[in-house]
Design goal:
This protein is of the alpha/beta class. It contains 13 helices and nine strands. Helix 7 crosses helix 8.
Length: about 325
């Protein structure tokens, strides 16, 4: 195996493979081909169809420096764990240290993402902790719920740079499963809560641009905060990984991410037969569209990200920086 091999992992079932395909194509689109560098893409699943595997192989086949490996794994070790509205596949990342037993570092990505830049520096920089993640700097609720230290953050687990050597050394997978079993009735985001608590002293922080969520951008009051102001600017002008958490573009009754249009542009280039569908029904669906109609940040704002850029520039031009906690 070449020393310059970068590993990227996903977890999926048949239903989510089409969305994974869009994420995978975006990954290939933005990575520069470098002599001697290989990208190994791993998909953890309890089974996907041959047709879906062929679809992923066709995407990866467009680049000689990319390889695909599908790992069929058992979910039995998670059968007693709560899903709290999420699927059992959210726990599959816990298996990566075992499944990729000879790999030292892997980038785990959710399938509701779009890669929008060269991300090779994630593999080239030192990683002295078990994970590196993007902080939810605005999320005081979950930091307090799990009694995390005041000087740290709750993080989103959709983008995780994992030091698998350290995971194996400290047996983190076993500790995470045991923690989930012991806290079943308290969990809001099952595996994510576990990762935040169990690894709270073994995490380092990635720049915000590597997990650009709607929540990072909608809280415009943070545009004035010194600690994250420049990083928010990077999210608005140079996003590296866009995360559609709570904003799945394929649903017409979800709030629209400022980069909603980029997902559809990517899928259109692939000739995938996507069309918007609903996730709500009845009064809940009607309520959503009424709320959107009267919202200033609704889907009627064609280029919401440009509006946010304008607000950010206005802050830069008119307001002195404020301390993060103010």
């Amino acid at each position: 195996m070449p020393l310059n091999t970068f590993h990227v992992a996903f977890a999926s079932n048949d239903a989510y493979v089409p969305y994974l395909a869009v994420t995978l194509q975006s990954l290939l689109s933005y990575q520069v081909q470098v002599e001697g560098r290989e990208w190994h893409v791993h998909v953890l699943t309890d089974g996907v169809s041959e047709g879906n595997i062929r679809m992923l192989e066709e995407i990866v086949g467009n680049r000689a420096d990319f390889q695909l490996e599908v790992h069929v794994v058992s979910t039995s070790s998670f059968s007693e764990l709560p899903d709290v509205g999420y699927s059992i596949y959210t726990y599959l990342r816990f298996l990566l240290p075992t499944v990729l037993s000879s790999v030292e570092r892997v980038l785990y990505l959710d399938v509701d993402l779009l890669v929008h830049a060269d991300i090779s520096e994630l593999f080239l920089a030192p990683l002295d902790t078990a994970i590196a993640a993007v902080p939810e700097f605005w999320n005081k609720k979950h930091r307090k719920k799990w009694q995390l230290p005041e000087d740290t953050f709750y993080f989103n687990a959709g983008v995780l740079l994992m030091n698998l050597s350290m995971w194996r050394e400290k047996d983190y997978a076993k500790k995470l499963i045991e923690w989930c079993e012991a806290h079943q009735k308290q969990l809001s985001f099952p595996d994510q809560d576990a990762l935040n608590v169990v690894l709270q002293e073994d995490v380092s922080w990635l720049p915000l641009r590597y997990n650009v969520m709607y929540n990072h951008l909608e809280r415009t009051a943070y545009y004035k905060k010194a600690r994250f102001q420049s990083e928010i600017g990077e999210c608005l002008y140079h996003p590296a990984i866009i995360h559609y958490a709570g904003c799945a573009p394929w649903f017409d009754d979800k709030r629209k991410h400022p980069y909603h249009h980029l997902w559809w542009e990517q899928s259109a280039q692939m000739n995938l037969p996507f069309s918007s569908r609903s996730s709500l029904s009845g009064w809940r669906r009607q309520k959503f569209f009424l709320k959107q109609f009267f919202s200033t940040n609704s889907s009627r704002v064609i280029h919401l990200w440009k509006k946010l850029q304008a607000q950010y520039q206005q802050v830069l031009n008119s307001s002195p920086l404020k301390p993060f906690g103010s």
